[in-house]
Design brief:
Blueprint lengths: L1 H31 L11 E3 L5 E4 L7 E2 L9 H11 L11 H14 L9 H9 L6 H17 L2 H11 L6 E2 L1 H9 L8 H9 L13 H17 L5 H9 L14 H10 L5 E3 L4 H18 L6 E8 L5 E5 L27 H10 L8 E4 L18 E4 H6 L3 H11 L1 H10 L3 H5 L17 H12 L3 E2 L28 E2 L3 H11 L21 E6 L5 E7 L3 E8 L11 H17 L14 E5 L15 E5 L12 E7 L5 E2 L9 E7 L3 H9 L24 E2 L7 E3 L7 E3 L1 E2 L6 E6 L2 E7 L4 E3 L5 E8 L4 E9 L1
Parallel strand pairs: 1-5, 3-4, 21-28
Antiparallel strand pairs: 1-2, 6-7, 6-14, 8-9, 10-11, 12-13, 13-14, 15-16, 17-18, 17-19, 20-23, 22-26, 24-25, 24-27, 27-28
């Protein structure tokens, strides 16, 4: 009895050893040869709705696109499992019953007729592709069990769907779906799913586009088996049997190529980038831009760029770097959105907004559009003409250069360029010390994305936020360049106050302006937007940027090689495309502008100065202003003058007779405007000359020397060259007297030009008007 008990114990020990030995061996091998799952996927860029915009090959030149769980429908999952591994959720990586069945069938028929590879074993084989031998089969089984220990069943199935081969260099269900059917996997029909499920077994003979008839034949066999298994309804299977197969190898998705290249550079190590772009809007904008640019080619204009953003969130929803990416003859692969170009007049709104905030202007303030010379810099208007007295609003709407340069001189280049640097203008931030007054006319370089972000700030009460390219929930912590994205729900950087932004929008949404395109067929369909144009020197760049509460759109047109075109300008080249895009996106929307903010109020002002009215002001107009900031001095557009009974001369308090005089109101015109009126022989009311018997020096504006600048050095080409002497004077001046180093040079009427032959290196130039008011400047001369 004792012997039998010992024998039984030995038997149990041997059985336990037999059972534990493989387990221990497996665990030992598992530690020595750990499973390595390091799958490199093709980088994919998605739009905001999950549509694939662009995909790139892996380093090993494979189209291996990661299939996400939400790409896998229940129908796809059921079909794959039915076809490949019906007991997938019940085995531990190896299916012994399937192995026995396969061995029996292969021995009975003398050839390999069926396999026993589970999905786990297939994944193991795809992770380490080796020739099919018995040793490698055992190795696959070992790796399959490792997979089962390391991953869940759904994760293993996901690996299978990502790695399954579909011929050529296509791997994974998603890549096959996109490249053969131009769909994502969740959009596939049952017929398409079944076709994809059979191709991996014979990828060399079942090639979509080349052997579709054979694929349909094999597909239908499996559909009948699915019917027998009652996996889906008869109606669904009947529809699948009748469905034609239109699969063929298509190019990889390549929507918005410049945008996607930009995102790849920003996030080089990210496999999936979920962007803010809307593929539907992108393709619509591309079609409009391409069609519009076709007629520009006849004018020698071959390139354009468009950026469309959501005004509130600053999310970019369309991005067109060029109208034709494949136009190599005209550098179509250049990204025009990021290209540095001259902005022309497109920066002027920010300048006027700053002037509103600093209390220099309101929209109705009168400015002088007359010849200007600031330290030798003499800007001209686009049409080389002058308007005289204009409101600030009209000066901006008409994009007049001289008032803008004058206002930049008042505001200051450092403040203006500093505000642009805060708004993300990289080139201006880098070159701030080299910039001068010419920057307001395009003497600097900007990018379309920078300009669009700035105009979006005007639409958001003056608060700047950087444009958003990727969805907030998928933002990485930082970009390749180290900078972080802003939160679209934060207020942002205040470029302007809400009041100044409100004034700007009121000016820029007016339609009575010269930059409204009259010659284009779309001029009749003007969208309700605020916009501004710009044209660079030499007609190289045409800009038009507009906004409403829904969208902010920036348009640039020109040639990437820098060649100008005779017909290129912001109004007739870029604005029609801007209007086309707004009308396509927002034509029927109910448009409402932001209400006036709390720091803005309204008042009646005199139309001749834009100032609060005095008693004599008539025909008042409404103007908006910022209380406590905007100019508040009463209007002085006219002044009371004592004149003789005949009106041939005027009096001052020192020479006013007791009788024989009368009073009359005369225009109180600034010297620069009076000088222009005089030189242009304009008809205006001039104050009579002062009483010649009076010797008093009168108060008022002294002459302003305009032809020479104090402290400047002038290089004369030869010894006989002369200096020109011109000045602006007040309305009551009829004659001026010129002196060089206190020696009399000559006299002339107001607005008349005299000449001086310099005889010394350093010269003091003096100009005295007939009221005794004097101005001195000092210059140097080199010959």
């Amino acid at each position: 009895m004792q012997d039998e008990h010992k024998k039984s114990k030995r038997t149990w020990r041997r059985a336990l050893v037999v059972l534990l030995a493989p387990v221990l061996l497996f665990l030992l091998l598992h530690m020595v040869f750990p499973l390595q799952v390091d799958v490199v996927y093709a980088p994919v860029i998605y739009d905001r709705n999950g549509v694939v915009l662009h995909t790139y090959m892996t380093p090993d030149q494979q189209w291996r696109i990661k299939t996400r769980p939400d790409d896998v429908t229940a129908r796809l999952k059921q079909t794959i499992l039915f076809k490949e591994d019906r007991y997938f959720y019940y085995h531990f990586g190896v299916n012994p019953a399937a192995m026995v069945r396969a061995a029996f069938n292969n021995i009975r028929k003398g050839r390999r007729t069926s396999g026993a590879s589970t999905i786990s074993m297939q994944v193991a084989r795809m992770l380490d592709r080796k020739p099919r031998t018995y040793f490698n089969k055992v190795k696959e089984m070992f790796r399959a069990v490792q997979l089962e220990l390391q991953f869940s069943k759904d994760e293993i199935l996901q690996l299978y769907l990502n790695l399954v081969p579909y011929g050529s260099n296509i791997q994974g269900v998603k890549a096959a779906s996109l490249l053969y059917f131009e769909k994502s996997p969740d959009q596939l029909s049952l017929a398409e799913i079944t076709a994809l499920s059979i191709i991996p077994n014979r990828p060399n003979s079942l090639v979509p586009g080349r052997s579709n008839a054979l694929i349909v034949q094999e597909r239908n066999k499996w559909l009948q088996r699915i019917r027998t298994a009652a996996l889906f309804s008869d109606e669904l299977i009947n529809d699948a049997l009748e469905e034609p197969l239109t699969a063929f190898r298509r190019p990889a998705p390549a929507i918005a190529p410049q945008f996607c290249c930009r995102l790849r550079r920003m996030f080089p190590s990210v496999d999936e980038i979920h962007t803010t772009l809307d593929a539907v809007v992108q393709m619509k904008a591309e079609e409009i831009t391409r069609s519009y640019c076709d007629h520009l080619k006849l004018q020698g204009i071959h390139n354009a760029a468009v950026l469309i953003s959501d005004t509130r969130t600053r999310q970019v929803i369309a991005y067109i770097g060029s109208p034709d990416f494949h136009d190599t003859a005209h550098h179509g692969q250049v990204d025009g959105v990021r290209g540095l170009r001259s902005p022309g007049s497109a920066l002027k709104p920010l300048l006027y907004g700053l002037a509103f905030d600093l209390g220099h202007l309101t929209p109705a303030t009168i400015l002088a559009d007359v010849p200007l010379n600031i330290k030798g810099y003499a800007p001209e208007n686009y049409d080389l003409g002058y308007r005289g007295a204009v409101t600030a609003g009209d000066a901006l709407r008409q994009s007049l250069n001289i008032p803008a340069v004058k206002m930049l001189n008042v505001v200051g280049v450092p403040l203006f360029s500093g505000r642009l640097a805060e708004a993300g203008f990289s080139s201006i931030k880098k070159n701030r010390k080299q910039l001068g007054l010419s920057m307001i006319l395009g003497g600097c370089e900007v990018r379309l994305d920078e300009m669009t972000a700035m105009y979006a700030a005007f639409a958001n009460q003056g608060y700047y936020l950087p444009l958003q390219f990727v969805l907030p929930e998928s933002l990485p912590s930082s970009r390749k360049d180290g900078s972080r994205y802003g939160d679209p729900d934060t207020a942002g950087i205040p470029l302007l106050t809400p009041g100044a932004s409100y004034m700007l929008t009121g000016i820029l949404r007016e339609l009575h302006r010269p930059d409204l395109p009259h010659l284009h067929r779309q001029a009749a369909g003007i969208p309700r937007i605020a916009w501004k144009t710009g044209t660079s020197y030499g007609r190289r760049d045409a800009w038009s940027i507009g906004y409403n509460r829904h969208y902010t759109i920036g348009v640039w047109a020109g040639n990437f090689n820098g060649m100008g075109a005779a017909t290129l300008n912001g109004a007739e080249t870029a604005t029609p495309l801007l209007f086309l895009l707004f009308n396509a996106l927002d034509r029927n929307a109910v448009q409402e502008w932001e209400p006036a903010p709390g720091n803005v109020s309204f008042r009646m002002v005199c139309p001749k100065t834009g100032s609060p009215p005095a008693a004599e002001c008539e025909d008042l107009i409404a103007d908006c202003y910022i209380p406590g900031v905007s100019p508040a001095s009463l209007c002085v557009h006219s002044r009371e003058v004592w004149i003789s009974a005949a009106g041939d001369f005027s009096y001052c308090t020192s020479c006013l007779p007791q009788t024989g005089y009368r009073t009359r109101m005369y225009p109180n015109i600034a010297p620069d405007l009076a000088g222009w009126l005089e030189s242009s022989h304009a008809d205006y009311e001039k104050i009579p000359p002062h009483n010649p018997e009076c010797s008093r020096i009168l108060d008022g504006h002294a002459p302003v020397i305009t032809s020479l600048q104090n402290g400047m050095t002038y290089l004369l080409p030869d010894p006989a060259a002369k200096l020109l002497l011109t000045c602006n004077v007040a309305n009551d001046v009829h004659e001026v007297f010129w002196y060089a180093n206190d020696r009399f040079v000559g006299k002339g009427r107001a607005g008349e030009t005299l000449s001086l032959l310099p005889d010394t290196h350093e010269i003091k130039i003096s100009c005295t008007d007939d009221k005794g008011r004097n101005t001195d400047i000092h210059i140097k001369v080199k010959k």
